[in-house]
Design goal:
The protein is of the alpha/beta class. The protein has helices spanning about 45, 50-65, 85-95, 110-120, 160-175, 185-190, 200-205, 210-215, 220-225, 230-255, 265-270, 275-285, 300-320, and strands spanning about 5-10, 15-25, 30-40, 75-80, 105-110, 125-130, 135-140, 145-150, 260-265, 295. The two termini are about 20 Å apart.
């Protein structure tokens, strides 16, 4: 019998860090043993110390299912947003060096597991619309392109943060009498615990992460759009147009034909069917039209897919040279 081999996948984004411990059985099938979750995993937004703590928490929860007699993790994939800089790589390498169970590992961009989980061979287009937004793709010959992902200061259009920010703008301009009243005012103020628009700024500055708090308003915007509020509908339409354009420009940059695989990830687009459908309708209008469309509700499983492939390649290389 083959000795059990354990894989660890970590997906760290702007709001959450998720970890999964999995075991490969004798037939190389994946069995998920335990999951872990903590706060944000983007060191540029949350800071190095916070990300290190969140890595410890999420992986610690997942690794609690590792048997005591296990030799360690056969392969680990860390997919973290904002970790491409030298200082951030040093942070991750230092954390791994101090971890007794993690040995062979790779650090990949947070979008890579989405393609691994949402396409048959890692070729196609991925779109993430969660707290932030980004589109990316890989061609058959291995070329990679990315569009968006600029961050909330001057990017992330169509994301949860963008929808929430525009909602606050609509409420503020309505309060100033510059635009019509919006149905967004009451639910947004209630969500934030504010008695009036003039309290919003003070409340946001007291939150640990104003960015995540603003992004949490996105479901309220999409609900108001469904009811028919003009301001909310305009916000939803502009977001859908932008996300569709991100995909279209990425497809064009890679020279892909119609029928490409499209993987969708992020809570805003995955958990809101009308918003997702509006993005896809807009994409169908401007083209090129995708073929298979897969919703990736758990991108961290893509990290496990990458880890299994990397382990297979390592074992194959070792046996070839033995």
């Amino acid at each position: 019998m083959v000795q059990p081999r354990y894989l660890l996948g970590v997906d760290g984004g702007g709001s959450r860090t998720r970890a999964v411990l999995a075991r490969l059985d004798d037939d190389n099938n994946v069995e998920v043993l335990r999951r872990g979750v903590a706060g944000p995993g983007n060191p540029l937004l949350a800071g190095h110390r916070q990300v290190r703590e969140n890595l410890e928490t999420a992986t610690g929860q997942a690794l609690a299912a590792l048997p005591e007699q296990a030799p360690g993790i056969a392969y680990t994939v860390l997919a973290l947003a904002g970790a491409s800089g030298e200082a951030e790589k040093a942070l991750i390498n230092g954390w791994v060096d101090g971890h007794p169970l993690i040995h062979d590992f790779c650090l990949v961009p947070d979008w890579q597991p989405v393609l691994a989980a949402g396409t048959a061979d890692g070729v196609g287009i991925g779109l993430i619309a969660g707290t932030g937004s980004v589109a990316f793709g890989r061609s058959q010959d291995g070329r990679i392109e990315k569009r968006g992902g600029w961050g909330h200061w001057f990017g992330d259009l169509g994301s949860g943060f963008d929808l929430g920010r525009q909602a606050l703008t609509a409420i503020a301009t309505a309060a100033d009498g510059l635009t019509p009243e919006t149905m967004l005012t009451a639910p947004v103020l209630q969500h934030l615990g504010a008695d009036g628009p003039d309290q919003v700024t003070t409340i946001l500055t007291r939150h640990d992460s104003p960015r995540r708090t603003i992004a949490s308003l996105a479901p309220l915007v999409l609900e108001a759009a469904e009811i028919g509020d003009p301001a909310a509908r305009a916000i939803r339409e502009s977001g859908a147009r932008y996300l569709a354009s991100l995909v279209a420009t990425t497809v064009s940059a890679l020279g892909l034909d119609e029928g490409y695989a499209l993987a969708l990830a992020g809570s805003v687009i995955c958990k809101n069917t009308p918003y997702r459908n509006q993005v896809l309708d807009e994409l169908a209008r401007i083209g090129p039209v995708p073929g298979a469309i897969n919703r990736v509700d758990e991108p961290v499983m893509g990290a496990i897919t990458i880890a299994r492939k990397a382990l297979h390649n390592t074992e194959h290389t070792w046996s070839h040279h033995a």
